[in-house]
Amino acid sequence: MEQTVSLLDAIAPSPGEPGREMLDPATGELVGVSPMHGIAELEAAVAAAKAAQPGWAAAGHEARSAALLAAADAVEAHAEELARILSREQGKPLNGPNARFEVGACAAWLRSAATTPLEPETLVDDGTTKAVLHYRPIGIVGAIGPWNWPMMITVWQIAPALRMGNAAIVKPSNYTPLSVLALIRVVNQALPEGVLHVLAGDREVGAAITTHPAIGKVMFTGSTPTGKAIIRSSADTVKRLTLELGGNDAGIVLPDADPAAIAEGLFWGAFINTGQTCAALKRLYVHADIYDQVCEALTAYAANVPMGVGLEEQNVLGPLQNKAQYQIVADLVEAAKASGARILLGGNPQEDQPGYFYPTTLVADIDNENPLVAEEQFGPALPIVKYTDLDQAIQWANALEVGLGASVWSTDPDKAREVAARLQAGTVWINAHGVVDPRIPFGGAKQSGYGLEFGAEGLKHLAQPQIING
Ligand code: NAD
């Protein structure tokens, strides 16, 4: 605990500077005080980044990779301290696929960005023409992130940016600034001064990043409406954008699936981070032949997964991160109930308890048009829709304007791949959902965004391609 105090102290505003008290969504207790940065701090960060970036770019891949590997070591050296800050501010438990897991992922993605090869590509070399494609730094990259996986998503944005020789300016969500400030403080132990900045400001600071003429690219992860606002606001400076936006991922369970074997995977595909995950399973379509068995197996598994205060080791599900998100989930479940849908589990929040806890909720016999199916709930409430005709299920899965992930569940991998090929989503998993891997590119289809993250493709998206012809 002593260490936690020290990092939180280090990032706190100096006396007299503006600050915002951050409260634990599980208990309402004070976690720490975040500074409140504004446009003046953005200008100072841009000036420092401009001064530092050429040296960072000139240092070369080897030196930058070494720095990122050292940053991964520093994150691991502070892992428990970072996980505790994250757990208390975001709400996710320490244990399970939550806070410690997220900090571990930060180290893994830093290492992957450091070690993924990306060489210049000779495109033509026929004796008369020689054309080589190089990947140059863009300059300064803005990184704007959400509150659900605040540390991991920040690393997804900055690690490839830094590797490719850019400076970066991070703007965390104002629901989770402490987590990101603490992370950047640790990462900066391994980087030259001026290369990496963090500004804990309101959305005005985010908006100013998207219009700033000195910033060449914005990495944005967040909601689809904000993504659209960023496309508009970045137009005048023709900024490069990578947009990872909202989703409403469908999963289709084929009639040959084994309900008992898939229950655990379905549960964590939907409920990881208490459902507050972009590429979580948010609509489940189950064939009528095994509908009842899947509902039973999922309910039996879900009923035994402990939810509670994050610092208590037995818990692996936590509260919603904020009141607005709690209300979205509660309203959608109430509307589903009112429509006559059947609650298999949950749906009965205890309003008199502290914290934004919404119980694990499974809703059966629900129409595809119900808002709990058609809208992104981003919380622990999964609608389970019955289908009899596979073409109909695929049509339902593809009917929305978003397409981040999707999944197919079956004992026949060839059949599952055939169905997967017909789904409109950036990633389709088979017998799993939402599993990300630093070696495998990730990005959305349709209004879930554009651009890829991770692997060599991810590095290319943080570079300015340049052809040398001759
Ligand atoms: P949000 O869009 O409300 O906020 C995201 C960030 O944008 C915050 O830092 C916010 O301060 C900033 N912002 C707000 N208005 C801005 C503007 N006009 N210009 C620049 N920045 C601005 O999203 P959220 O509620 O924090 O996150 C939840 C959403 O994010 C969900 O829809 C979820 O599906 C999506 N998400 C997507 C991915 C992915 O990889 N596709 C990952 C995580 C979350």
List the helices and strands and how they pair.
Layout: H1 2-11, E1 19-23, E2 30-35, H2 39-77, H3 79-90, H4 99-115, E3 121-125, E4 130-137, E5 140-144, H5 150-163, E6 167-171, H6 177-187, E7 196-198, H7 203-211, E8 217-221, H8 224-233, E9 240-244, E10 249-253, H9 259-271, E11 281-287, H10 291-302, H11 323-338, E12 342-345, E13 361-364, H12 371-374, E14 381-387, H13 390-398, E15 402-403, E16 405-409, H14 413-421, E17 427-430, E18 445-446, E19 449-450, H15 455-460, E20 463-469
Parallel strand pairs: 5-6, 5-8, 6-7, 8-9, 10-11, 10-16, 11-14, 13-14, 16-17
Antiparallel strand pairs: 1-2, 3-4, 4-20, 9-19, 12-13, 15-18
Nicotinamide-adenine-dinucleotide (NAD) binds next to helix 7 and helix 8.
Would you tell me the overall average pLDDT?
97
The description of the largest β-sheet is: 7 strands, mixed
Which architecture of the largest domain would the CATH scheme give at its second level? 3-Layer(aba) Sandwich
In the CATH scheme, the class of the largest domain would be: Alpha Beta
CATH fold-type name of the largest domain: Aldehyde Dehydrogenase, Chain A, domain 1
> Looking at this structure, what is the CATH superfamily of the largest domain?
Aldehyde Dehydrogenase, Chain A, domain 1
User: What portion of residues is helical?
Assistant: 40-55%
Radius of gyration: 23 Å
Number of strands: 20
Low-confidence stretches: none
Number of helices: 15
Shape: globular
What distance separates the N and C termini? Answer: 60 Å
Give the domain tally. Answer: 2
- Name the structural class: alpha/beta
In percent, how much strand structure appears in the residues? 15-25%
Q: What ions, cofactors and ligands are bound?
A: nicotinamide-adenine-dinucleotide
Strand order of the largest sheet: 12-13-14-11-10-16-17
